[in-house]
Structure formats: structure tokens, C-alpha cells
Design goal:
The chain is an alpha/beta fold. It has helices at about 1-20, 25-35, 35-40, 45-50, 50-55, 105-120, 140-155, 175-190, 210-225, 245-255, 280-285, 295-300, 330-340, 355-360, 370-375, 375-390, 395-420, 425-445; strands at about 60-70, 75-85, 90-100, 125-130, 165, 235-240, 260-265, 270, 305, 320, 345, 365-370. Helix 2 (about 25-35) runs parallel beside helix 6 (about 105-120).
Length: about 450
């Protein structure tokens, strides 16, 4: 134990120096590293092979300029990123995020998490992530197209269906993927559909991909609750966000008999005591591109509150953070506990701070951490890659069934691993260790590279 702890402490201290300006990456890395002490105790060969030092260092980091012209003729310049973190078990796989907050630390945090999330799916995909500080909000289709084309002019030389296969993320939906894929196809002079996922159905996209993260989250939660003899039926649920993940998590929760009473966007949140009317939310967000406050104009019993983080004050049995990183801090977590929450499942990436996680564990809240609970999106992206390789498409029902089984397997693997390492019901540690073991064993098999 002493040697293992010293190795982990040394790696953490080096990261604190080297990545002092990357707080999100440090947070993600420290959480995983602190989980690995008992693993290193059991497998000292990982220490000798430098697995811990190697797994926190990206295999490749790419930073590039993206120059484009807006509708007024003004030249705009943004900064693009692709972090290819670990390719031990397959090509780098992870989304592209277009948002003003994007920087190297954010992309490294997301890429690092992706290593273990992708490993947990059981599918042959490595970990990577990318994006740009470009904001598609308020831009015309022409501006978005010109930006995406210029972004791909650089990115195309670093990706390929057997190298690195990006997908969408915040700010990158079907429109952006289409523009980028068209540019890639023209530059490469080949129809390599598997290079990007989240594509339109007419050119290699997969049915159920749009729904996958939200559906997968609920399949994970259903399995976690069922394992404890609890049903989703009749439970009250709050879900932060109102994008794809939140919308389809709401849909599946309602199908399971739960009542979703609150959703949010970046301005505030709505509370509907009779249950969210999903058709209204979908029209506001997917058709009108409006604000969540518009919901109350059509449903007078609903309440709108400024400040979206206030959603965690709404009393509920189950909370599903599906908005962004670190949206639940220690104070919000304690409010959830005080209000009687029994389960929390993360649809966003790292939406709970370490203080919040500690409160969940202390109070024995059933907790599905992001790298396990929201893996449905990347799992279905990998299924899209499989269909592209076969030049064939599965039905919605076939993809959905495969997704459900993958999420059940993820829960069972994480829970089993937690029990094996003496931390039953701690799915943070169970997920971290289970994801790590597959990657570490593969790195061992492939030598010191």
C-alpha cells in the first residue's frame, strides 16, 4: 500500500505543477488516480511499466488556428483543439465541443474521462476529445458552415476511421457534423463515413444516436435502482438542462412511470408540479430555439425561476444533472440530501464537484457517476461506426436494444468491481477501476510506447 500510495501521490504532485492552469483536468485526474491505490497494490507490474505516469499524459495534443469570415465580411479567428489521449484499445473517440469556454484544460479533462468511459462500454474505442472556442449561438447557417469548413481543413489531417473518430458535443449537432463531414469527404476524396459519428441518416448516421445519452442514462438508473429493489414507477425527477440529453432522459423517465417536474437552461429553470409536458419543451428548444421560460406561457401552473442552479432546491426522489461540469457543489448536494433524494445519475460530464460526491457517498445516495451513467452516447457512436464498416443500418429497435444491454453491462461491471475491491456501492471507484484495468492490461501487452 505504501509504495502504491507514494506512486499516486508523486504523479498527482507532478500534475499539480505541470497542469496548474487546468483545474478541470486536475479534478478528473485526481479522482481517478486516488481510486487506483488498491489496484496498484494488487498489480505492482503496472507501477514497473509506468502505467500511471503514462495514462495521465496525452499521446498527442493538437492546437490550431481557425480563420473564417462572418456575414459582414469581417475576418474572425478562433482556437481549435484535439487531444488524442489514449489509443490502447481502439481509435481515439470523443466529441467536438464548440463553446466560448473551451480551452486546453477543458478538452484534456473531457479526453481523460473518455478513456475510461469508452473502456467501460466494452467496445474497441480509445479516448480523445476536441473542440473550439467558437460559439455557434447567434450565427447564421452560412457563418457556421464557413467556420466548420475551416475547422475541418486543419482537423482532417489528424483524423480517420482507424485513427481518430470525433462526434458531436455541446454546440455541435447534426448541422455542424454535416458541414464538417462534407469538407472531410472533399479533402480526402473518399466516403469514409466512419470518421465522424452523429451523422445524418442519409449518409451513414445511426438511428437512436440522438436519443442515446438520455436513454442510456435512464437504462443505467433503472438497473441501479432495480439492483436495490426500487422501481422508477411513481418517482419524482428533476433534470438540469433542456438539450438532447435532458429531453431524451425526460422521455425515457416518463416511459418508466416517473414524473419529471423540472428542467433548466442557462438562464433559469421551470417547475411544473403536474409533470413536464415534453412536446412543449421540444418545440421551444428544437423548433423555436427559444428559452425554457417560454414554457410557462403555455402552462400557467408552471413556475419559472431565474438562476438555473436553483433547480437542485426542487424536492425530488431522483436528480439527473445533464447540463455541464461542476453544476452541483457541496451546498447543492446537501440540499438534495436534505430534500430526500434517493438517487443521482449524471448525464453531463463531471457535473458534481468532489465535495458533492463525498456528500453522496457519506449519505449512501445511489450515485451513477458520469463516466458510467452517460456512456450511452459514445457507445451508440461506436455502434454507428460498426454500421458504417458493414455498409448496413440496424433498426431503431436493434440499436436501442444493444444500447440498453451495454448500459446494464456497465452498471453490473462497475458494481462487481466495487465489491471486489471492498467498496461496495461506491460506483465512482468501481467505474474508475473497471475502466482502468482494461486499458492498463492492453498498454502492458503493447509494450512501453
Amino acid at each position: 500500500m505504501q509504495r502504491s500510495q507514494e506512486v499516486v501521490n508523486n504523479v498527482i504532485e507532478k500534475l499539480r505543477v505541470k497542469s496548474s492552469n487546468e483545474p478541470e483536468f486536475l479534478q478528473a485526474a485526481i479522482e481517478v488516480l486516488e481510486s487506483l491505490v488498491p489496484v496498484l497494490d494488487k498489480h505492482p507490474e503496472y507501477i514497473d511499466a509506468g502505467i500511471v505516469e503514462r495514462i495521465v499524459e496525452p499521446e498527442r495534443t493538437i492546437i490550431f488556428r481557425v480563420t473564417w469570415v462572418d456575414d459582414s465580411g469581417k475576418v474572425r479567428v478562433n482556437r481549435g483543439f484535439r487531444v488524442q489521449f489514449n489509443s490502447a484499445i481502439g481509435p481515439y473517440k470523443g466529441g467536438l465541443r464548440f463553446h466560448p469556454s473551451v480551452n486546453l484544460g477543458i478538452i484534456k479533462f473531457l479526453g481523460f474521462e473518455q478513456i475510461f468511459k469508452n473502456s467501460l462500454t466494452g467496445l474497441p474505442i480509445g479516448g480523445g476529445k476536441g473542440g473550439c472556442d467558437f460559439d455557434p449561438k447567434g450565427k447564421s447557417d452560412g457563418e457556421v458552415m464557413r467556420f466548420c469548413q475551416n475547422f475541418m481543413i486543419e482537423l482532417n489531417r489528424h483524423i480517420g476511421q482507424f485513427i481518430d473518430t470525433p462526434a458531436g458535443d455541446i454546440g455541435v449537432g447534426g448541422r455542424e457534423i454535416g458541414f464538417m463531414y462534407g469538407t472531410f469527404k472533399r479533402l480526402q476524396n473518399q466516403f469514409a463515413a466512419g470518421v465522424l459519428t452523429g451523422k445524418g441518416l442519409t449518409y451513414g448516421g445511426s438511428l437512436a444516436r440522438k436519443e442515446a445519452t438520455g436513454y442510456g442514462l435512464l437504462y443505467f438508473m433503472e438497473e441501479m435502482l432495480k439492483d436495490k429493489g426500487i422501481s422508477m414507477e411513481g418517482k419524482t425527477v428533476t433534470i438540469s438542462g433542456s438539450g438532447n440529453v435532458a429531453i431524451y432522459a425526460t422521455q425515457k423517465a416518463q416511459e418508466f412511470g416517473a414524473k419529471v417536474v423540472a428542467l433548466s437552461d442557462s438562464n433559469g429553470y421551470i417547475f411544473d408540479p403536474d409533470g413536464i409536458k415534453l412536446a412543449t419543451v421540444r418545440k421551444i428548444k428544437e423548433v423555436d430555439r427559444g428559452r425554457i421560460s417560454d414554457y410557462c406561457k403555455q402552462h400557467p401552473k408552471a413556475e419559472y425561476h431565474d438562476g438555473w442552479k436553483g433547480i437542485w432546491t426542487v424536492k425530488a426522489d431522483i436528480a439527473l444533472p445533464c447540463a455541464t461540469e461542476n453544476e452541483i457543489d457541496g451546498a447543492a448536494a446537501q440540499v438534495l440530501v436534505n430534500n430526500g433524494v434517493i438517487a443521482i445519475g449524471e448525464g453531463a460530464n463531471m457535473p458534481s464537484t468532489p465535495e458533492a460526491q463525498a456528500i453522496y457517498i457519506k449519505n449512501k445516495i445511489l450515485y451513477g457517476p458520469a463516466k458510467a451513467a452517460n456512456a450511452g452516447g459514445v457507445a451508440t457512436s461506436a455502434l454507428e461506426m460498426s454500421q458504417n464498416s458493414m455498409r448496413y443500418s440496424w433498426t431503431f429497435e436493434e440499436v436501442d436494444a444493444k444500447l440498453k444491454q451495454i448500459m446494464i453491462n456497465i452498471y453490473q461491471t462497475a458494481a462487481k468491481t466495487a465489491r471486489e475491491y471492498g467498496v461496495a456501492d461506491n460506483l465512482i471507484i468501481g467505474s474508475n477501476i473497471a475502466g482502468f484495468l482494461k486499458v492498463a492490461d492492453t498498454m502492458m501487452a503493447q509494450g512501453i510506447i
